[in-house]
Write a structure and sequence with these properties.
36% of the residues lie in helices and 17% in strands. The chain has a domain of 206 residues: FAD/NAD(P)-binding domain, CATH 3.50.50. A hairpin with a 2-residue loop joins strand 7 and strand 8. It has 16 helices and 20 strands. The protein is of the alpha/beta class. The structure holds flavin-adenine dinucleotide. The site of flavin-adenine dinucleotide (FAD) has 39 residues, from helix 1, helix 10, strand 15 and helix 15.
C-alpha cells in the first residue's frame, strides 16, 4: 500500500545522526519522517537494560565529541540534556597499584618530572594541531578539483587554519601526521603507563595498533572532536548516553519531525534513477522528495538500493570499504561498587584504562590480525553510577567497558567463544579489582557480530567503516562522493559512514542537512 502523505525527506535510521539531520531539515521548514527499525531510538548511542533495574550505555558510553552547533542550534539543554559528570580524568591502571591520573595535560601520580613536563608540552601541541582540524569536521568536504566557490572556500579555510599554526608547527604537523603513535610517544616520553594509556587513545575504535602508520592521524582526529566542542571534556550524560538521544528526539519532535520506531525499511525505491520512496518491511510504501540514510554505506547501497541501480565502479568501491569491527562492549550489573585497590570512589568516577604499556596494546592488536581475540585485551571502563545513582537499583552499580580487540570474523565463530571472551575480559578487569567476579549480578557482552545484527551496522564497526587516510575526509565514504550525495539522485547519506565519521558528534547529520538544503535552494535533486 502506498501511504497518502508525501514527505520532503525520509530519514532511514533514528540513531543520533539521523535525528540530528531530521531536526536541522525540519528547522529549515522541511516535512520530515524518521523511520527506525529498532523499538528504541539512538542506534549505538542508546541505553540498554542489562539486568532488572540496571541501565547501561548499550555501546557508546562517553560523550566528548558532540558538535557545539548541534548542542546549541537544537537546544539540547532545553530539551533535557544534562551532564552527570564532566572533564572526567583518565586513570591509567597499573598492575602494581601505582596508577596515574591524567587530565588536561596534567598528571597525578609518580612519573619522572621530565615526563610530566614533556606531556604538558606534547598535549598542548597536539591540541593546537587538532584545533586546526576542528573547523573541517562541521563542514561539507570540498570536492577535490572542485570549481565551486564553496569548495574553494572550504579548502582555503583548512589551509588558513593550518597556516595559523605557524611555520614551525605546520612543519611539525606534516611530520607527525603520518607517524605511528608508538614512535611519537617513544620520542617524547619514557613512562610506560603514560605511553600505554595515550597509545590506547590513539587506536580506540579503529583497526589500528599503536605501531600502525596513521595512528597519530586518528588520534589527532579524535582530539579535534574534543578540541573546540569539548569544554565539558569527557562527559557522562545524566540518565546515560540514551539521554542524548532523548534530547535529540525531543528537539526533532518539537520542530515537527514525525518519528516511527519498530519500522524497518526493506528497500529504497528507485524510479528513473531517482530515489522516490522507501518500502517498509510491512509492505507499505512512503513517497518522498529525498531519502536520507543513516545506515552505513554498505547496508545502504548493497542491501537497500541494490546493485542493479549502481554502476560497477561505484559498487566496487563500496564493497571495498573496510568494515571489520574490532571493539566489543561488556556491560556488568554489580551489587556494589567494585574495589580497585589504590583508587577511591572519586577516582572510580573517572575513565579507567587498562593499557599498561604500548607493547600490551600492540600485542592485543596482533591477535586481531589473525582472526583471534586478544589474550590480554586493552579496555576502557566507566562506572556511570558513581555519578548517577538512578541507573541501578539499591546501591548497585553499572560497569561499562569497551574491550579491544575482538574481530567481527572470529576464527571458529563467536557462538563457540563468546562466553570465554567475556570471562577473559572480566578476568582482565579483575586483575585490578580482585573481588569483581563476586559482585556481578548481570552481564552483557556485545561482540562486533552482535552489534552488526542488533544495530544493523555492517561489521559492527564503531565508525561504520575504518577511519584511515584512504577512508576519511574527502575520500569518505568513497572517493568522489564525500559530499553526502550519492550516484542515485535524491539519495543522501547522513551517518557515521560519511564525513567526519563515528562518535556521538552529530556532525555527519548536520552537514548532510546543510547539503540537502543547499541542493533544494539550487533547485537540483542530487
Ligand atoms: C562498542 C562501541 C563503543 C563506542 N563508544 C563510544 C563512545 O564512548 N563515545 C563516542 O562518542 N562514540 C562511541 N562509539 C561510536 C558511536 O556509538 C557511533 O559512531 C555512533 O553512535 C554512530 O551514530 P549514527 O547515528 O551515525 O549511526 P547508528 O547509531 O548506527 O544509527 C543508525 C540507525 O539506523 C537504523 N537502521 C539501519 N538500517 C535500517 C533500516 N533498514 N530501516 C530502519 N532503520 C535502520 C539502525 O537501527 C540504527 O538505529 C562506540 C561504538 C561502539 C560500537
Amino acid at each position: 500500500m502506498t501511504e497518502d502523505r508525501k514527505y520532503g525527506a525520509i530519514i532511514i535510521g533514528g540513531g543520533h545522526n539521523g535525528l540530528v539531520c531530521a531536526a536541522f531539515l525540519a528547522r529549515a521548514g522541511q516535512s520530515v519522517l524518521v523511520v527506525e527499525a529498532a523499538d528504541q531510538l539512538g542506534g549505538a548511542a542508546r541505553n540498554a537494560e542489562i539486568a532488572p533495574g540496571y541501565t547501561a550505555p548499550a555501546c557508546a558510553h562517553i560523550l566528548h565529541l558532540l558538535h557545539p552547533r548541534v548542542r546549541s542550534k537544537l537546544k539540547l539543554r532545553r530539551h533535557g540534556l544534562k551532564l552527570a559528570a564532566r572533564r572526567l580524568p583518565t586513570v591509567a591502571l597499573d598492575p602494581d597499584g601505582n596508577h596515574l591520573t591524567l587530565g588536561g595535560g596534567r598528571i597525578a601520580g609518580t612519573v619522572p618530572e621530565e615526563d610530566a613536563r614533556s606531556w604538558r608540552r606534547l598535549h598542548k601541541r597536539l591540541l593546537r594541531m587538532a584545533g586546526a582540524l576542528h573547523p573541517f569536521l562541521g563542514r561539507i568536504p570540498p570536492r577535490l578539483g572542485g570549481e565551486s566557490w564553496q569548495d574553494r572556500l572550504t579548502l582555503a579555510r583548512l589551509g588558513l587554519s593550518l597556516r595559523m599554526l605557524g611555520k614551525a608547527e605546520m612543519r611539525d604537523f606534516l611530520r607527525i601526521v603520518n607517524m605511528n603513535a608508538a614512535d611519537l610517544l617513544d620520542d617524547e616520553l619514557s613512562d610506560d603507563r603514560l605511553k600505554g594509556a595515550l597509545a590506547f587513545d590513539a587506536v580506540l575504535g579503529t583497526n589500528f595498533g599503536p605501531r600502525s602508520p596513521g595512528s597519530v592521524l586518528t588520534w589527532l582526529y579524535r582530539l579535534a572532536g574534543e578540541a573546540k566542542g569539548g569544554r565539558s571534556g569527557l562527559a557522562l550524560p545524566a540518565g546515560g548516553m540514551g539521554a542524548v538521544t532523548d534530547a535529540l528526539a525531543a528537539s526533532a519532535l518539537d520542530l515537527g519531525v514525525d518519528i516511527r520506531t519498530g519500522t524497518p525499511v526493506r528497500r529504497i525505491v528507485v524510479e528513473d534513477d531517482r530515489a522516490a520512496a522507501v518500502e517498509l518491511e510491512s509492505g507499505n510504501v512512503l513517497r518522498t522528495r529525498a531519502v536520507v540514510s543513516s545506515a552505513d554505506p554498505k547496508t545502504t547501497f548493497l542491501d537497500l538500493v541494490g546493485p542493479e541501480h549502481l554502476d560497477t565502479g561505484f559498487l566496487r568501491r563500496v564493497r571495498s570499504i573496510r568494515t571489520n569491527g574490532l571493539a566489543a562492549k561488556l556491560n556488568l550489573a554489580l551489587d556494589e561498587l567494585p574495589d580497585f585497590p589504590g583508587l577511591d570512589r572519586a577516582a572510580l568516577g573517572g575513565r579507567l584504562v587498562i593499557a599498561p604499556d604500548i607493547g600490551y596494546v600492540e600485542r592485543a592488536f596482533d591477535h586481531s590480525k589473525y582472526g583471534e581475540y586478544s589474550a590480554e585485551p586493552a579496555i576502557e571502563i566507566t562506572i556511570p553510577t558513581v555519578h548517577d545513582a538512578s541507573l541501578a537499583p539499591g546501591g548497585g552499580h553499572v560497569l561499562s567497558a569497551v574491550v579491544q580487540y575482538a574481530p567481527r570474523d572470529l576464527k571458529g565463530g563467536w557462538e563457540a567463544h563468546r562466553d570465554a571472551f567475556a570471562d577473559h575480559a572480566v578476568a582482565a578487569i579483575a586483575r585490578y579489582a580482585p573481588g569483581l567476579a563476586g559482585r556481578i549480578v548481570g552481564r552483557q557482552l556485545l561482540t562486533p557480530a552482535d552489534i552488526e545484527r542488533d544495530f544493523r551496522i555492517a561489521g559492527g564497526h564503531w565508525h561504520h567503516g575504518d577511519l584511515a587516510v584512504d577512508q576519511m575526509l574527502m575520500l569518505r565514504p568513497v572517493p568522489g562522493w564525500a559530499q553526502y550525495g550519492t550516484p542515485v539522485a535524491g539519495l543522501y547519506l547522513c551517518g557515521a559512514g560519511a564525513h567526519p565519521g563515528g562518535g556521538v558528534m552529530g556532525a555527519a547529520g548536520m552537514n548532510a542537512a546543510q547539503r540537502i538544503l543547499a541542493a533544494r535552494k539550487a533547485g537540483n535533486a542530487a
